[in-house]
Amino acid sequence: MRVRLADRFLGSALALLLQAAFLFFLLQGVHMLTPPPRAVRELTMILPRLARPVPPQPLPGASRPKPAIAVPSPAPLPAPPPAMATPDAGALRGFGQSLFGCAPEVYALLPPEQRAHCPKPGGNRPPTAGDDLNPRSHSKDAATWQEDLDERHFDYSGCMGAELVVTCMTATTKAERARAAQRRREIDSEKEKAR
Predict the structure, then answer these.
(1) Which of 11, 32, 93, 145 is the most exposed place for a label (fewest CB within 10 A)?
(2) Global pTM?
């Protein structure tokens, strides 16, 4: 049996059409599985333009009034602060006793290092470096701390009216550095003597 060429061509065409149909249905199925992209809603607001106020037209022949100039009144000066009264020695002594627990009833029970902060009951002593009127630094190295503060707060206020400000500032800086170096040497020698 001989197969004709036309029948082969027709069979091939039908097979290709069948394959194309399968591919079409496959692509339709994939397209149905993916959801369509959501459209973004956009809101456009159009606002009307505001009308500009029209300045009043002066009447013909009328003179224009001059605007009044407001002069601010000077602010009143603040009242001076009230004068501080210096506390009397009795009030400070009572404050120290309450602060360190130096009441006369417990003086005998205090250890010697706490007794050093307290005045003896019934006796008056002159103020020393540890009193509130004459505070002393509790720093171990107070001289170095004070020198650091002095160096940090150094200013060039003496050079502001000078003719050559740069020259004045340079000379002042050199003098301050020399002073600071000398003071540091003195502090170091004092520390060596204390050792």
Answers:
(1) 32
(2) 0.29
